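Bug #77: duplicate submission created two jobs. Keeping one. Sequence:
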Amino acid sequence: MERVSTRVFLLVLAAVFLPPLQEAFQRAPRWEFAVPPPRPAVPSATPFLRSDFLPGEGLTRSVHCPTLVETDGGLLAAWYGGSREGAADVAIYGARWDAASGEWGEPRVLTDAARTAADLGRAVRKVGNAVLGRDSSGRLWLFYVSVSAGGWSGASLNARVSGDGGLTWSPARRIPANPFFDKGTLARCAPVLFSDGGLGLPVYREGIGKFGALLRLDPSGRVFDEVRISWGRSSLQPSVVPGLPHWAVAFLRQSGTPHRRILRSDSSDGGRSWTPPWNMRLPNPDSAVMGLRGRDGTFLLVYNALEVDRDVLALARSTDRGRAWEEVYRFEEGEPGITGHSYPYLIQDERGVYHLLYSWNRERIRHVRFNESWLGGLR
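Kept job's structure:
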């Protein structure tokens, strides 16, 4: 009788606890980046480099932190604009670029503090940094930060999702980066895809420390994990660039130290862990950087190529998976009355064309586009 009771008890335990355990195991994230195999460049195409400004000059006094994603038939850009950074009148603006005409449409407000507060059901004083990305099902994500009190150390992450290429967006919802103290989390660089359909969102913390991290999100946007990329009080805004299914490099802005160099960290286990950051030879005047792996396997970096200001915006290239870097071009050399060119955001579209956005004097957003033939001709 006692043996039968024990068996019944074990069967009851299995019936209660086994299904949740099986579900948790099935939903466990796969630490493997979705990296397409390299595709040869198209050297026969006519080289080109073109530059223009996004529309909306004078719409707001200040603009900053542009982001970009490819859509059907073109691009969608977003940035924040207002009287100044951190002001209550700042909104997240968006504009569409038509690939057929090569023209930008007029900007429109994607979200602001009032709309975010209404969606979240809580007070929101200001909004900031926006990041656009596409998930494995083709939906667009707009990640951005909001602050209810204080400065950026009180920031929280939010997201809106679009299933129609950015024409309409879902209500805002919080992305809780930390279940215990969800403050001081911001995003700046492009999300990455994992082979299980999940997203990896590079984030950084401002508060007691300044460090970079990678949020693992499932296809629905639920946070699975947060993995530290750096530590301490001197690294921000990681740009994560997968090179192989289990290898990626993160480039970080260095802040508050005399080294004045871009920081780098590597992962060899699909983003589960990262090496201690180390100083590259490329300079960094406490400014954002952006890395990208091109379709042909070339690694690119856009950065401010000085130690003390943001006047020069340069392009560096590596053809050996990031071991050696060479500056190959300067998009901006600095000019009188212009206080800087910063916060680059670089993507490559399905046709192989590179698109670069950056803040120009914090007054306008510049759009530069070039093809693989132009890049291959740089020496």
